[in-house]
Amino acid sequence: MKRVAAFIVALAAVGCLFTGCQPEKKEIENQNVSNQSSDSYEDALKECFDAMQSTGGGEVFYSYMYPDETIDAMKKSNEYDELVQTFNKTQDEMLQKRSEKYTFGSIKEAKELSEKQVAGVKTYLVQLSEPYLNTLTEDKLDIKDGYEVTYDYSKEGQEAESETVIIFRLNDEGWKVITR
Prior knowledge:
By secondary structure, the chain is α+β, with helices and mostly antiparallel strands. The chain has one domain. Helix content is 43%, strand content 24%. The protein is built from six helices and four strands. The chain has helices at 2-18, 41-52, 58-65, 68-76, 80-96, 115-129, and strands spanning 102-112, 143-155, 158-170, 174-179. A four-stranded antiparallel sheet has the order 1-2-3-4. α2 (41-52) crosses α3 (58-65). Mean pLDDT is 84; it is low at 1-30.
């Protein structure tokens, strides 16, 4: 049941972030997250976007989606590899059906998170993690800084659409992204 729930969450996140998109098929198999600890939320957001527009981006996507403690719990229960493989397979199938190339554009607007948004982010992370880690509590989550960011992306070089996400620095883990 946990696997099904995680798969549904991953698919919902993909759908929410890129509804209507037809991403470029790029291979990033076994890519490590390199911008998650960057001072630049822009670089981190672009890396997460690129993972979503590529085959093999499951590990990068999960590293931006879940707290590290949750990923460790997934690995201990031997569910993580299967979740990543399922995500990658689903992405690959989706991308094979699409031919247009999508490219990250630029940040259009970034607003600091309000106290209410920060509280909501903590609640979201606890609920997201619950199927794998029921000991995570909001008081264990330190959001150092965060933004509600609207960015655009292009389709075949033409401006396509804009999306709004929440991006925040969690504990000492680096940036995390919540899609709508």
